[in-house]
Amino acid sequence: MNELRKIGNYRWTICALVFFATTINYLDRQVISLLKPYLEEGGLFGTDPAHYESIYANLVIAFQVAYASGMLLVGGIIDKFGTKIGYAASLLAWSLAAIGHAFARTPFGFGVARAALGVPEAGNFPAAIKTTAEWFPKKERALATGIFNSGTNVGAIIAPMVVPLIAVTMGWQWAFIITGAVGLIWLIFWQIMYDTPEKKLAKGQLKQAEYDHIMSDKDETVAADGSELKKISWFKLLTYKQTWAFFLGKLLTDPVWWFFLFWLPAFLKEEYGLTGTQVSFPIALVYTMTTFGSIFGGWLPKYFIEHGLDANKARKKAMFIYALFPLTVISAQYMGGFSMWYAVIIIGIAASAHQAWSANIFTTVSDMFPKRAIASVTGIGGMAGAVGGILIAKSAGLLFDHYKALGDIKIGYGIMFMICATAYLIAWFVMHALVPKFKKIDLE
């Protein structure tokens, strides 16, 4: 504590801002999954219940296609214009798009709204990872990433607690309007409190000791000629196997999180008959668990480093441990036969492992690339994750419609859980084969 007081802790204030932005990001994207029963009952998914799952899957895909497309653009834009402007523009745009859902009346209208939300929401993680690289030395980045990444869980906890309640008392339209408006408040704090460490130091708002601590990684100092500010093209980044390791790691594992995010309420309805506010506590429990997983995921490699492992071995060891826990989800339906809460807890364990994995796979970007390329590489990986999300959403929609027609949708969920269980180990071995050691590369 004395050391923290001596160095200063403004960087953790910045981490808190990113945490709240990430919370808002996930709050806005999850609303539609919780309103799915209300939209179906209102005829907003069409008139044929046999196609509701596919229509919903298409709405999920509309978001993910837009999200993937946004990743083609936003990483480079944030690298070019800077974190402060890029982050603010992204959050303003996605907040307005979230509010716009309230005015949709057809599946096509919701598809347009989802696409409008997806493009700017793609800016959150490239901006967040770049912010972390700007404000934290390597040894603290996984922890900072784990903390802000836990915002995804808090957003997912808040949503089931408030969205069904708003829908029941005020109507589904107000659920979109109220949650979308929250982001506009965050913008005020961002504009007042954020700037680069160099500018904060020059203004006397950052201690010299904390600035020196942030800049303590010798291999990340900015060149005297300003070359660190030069943008690196995607074409050049794609020539590095490090980029492909991150790309494939996200492609294989992000779909698991997308699946839990968009289909967990539907799973609880199909398997246990939960509807409306009944799903609130089980979903909140799952994402409360993932909050601890995210923070622990950032802490464990820091612990390994402090006890003698180098950063590469610490990251690899931690990620391998996290890759083992999703295997438990294979037993979710069987254990759920004894009690629904067994299934909920097992899914919570798997989702927690994802968040622990996510905190570290994001940090591998700043391990391997200089700061000027971080947002672009994160965008490439985010696009890959969104493409994987598109594939799993389409597969889930077709699979569930098929088995629902046969009278046993539980088989469809069993197949999806098998895919979710094995994705992380496959991703770990692929990444290790491509990049045996995470170390900084020279882009010159």
Characterize the structure shown.
- The protein is mostly helical and 444 residues long.
- The chain has one domain: MFS general substrate transporter like domains (Growth Hormone, Chain: A), CATH 1.20.1250.20.
- The chain has helices at 2-7, 10-41, 52-81, 83-100, 107-121, 124-135, 138-149, 151-170, 172-193, 197-202, 208-214, 234-237, 241-272, 280-306, 311-324, 332-336, 340-368, 371-405, 409-434.
- Helix 2 packs parallel to helix 8 and helix 13 (241-272) runs parallel beside helix 18.
- The radius of gyration is 21 Å and the shape is globular.
Describe what is shown at a glance.
With 444 residues, this protein is an all-alpha fold.
Task: Present the secondary structure layout.
Elements (H helix, E strand, L loop, with lengths): L1 H6 L2 H32 L10 H30 L1 H18 L6 H15 L2 H12 L2 H12 L1 H20 L1 H22 L3 H6 L5 H7 L19 H4 L3 H32 L7 H27 L4 H14 L7 H5 L3 H29 L2 H35 L3 H26 L10
Helix pairs in contact: 2-4, 2-6, 2-7, 2-8, 2-9, 2-13, 3-4, 3-5, 3-18, 4-5, 4-6, 4-9, 6-7, 6-18, 7-14, 7-17, 8-9, 8-14, 13-17, 13-18, 13-19, 14-15, 14-17, 15-17, 15-19, 18-19
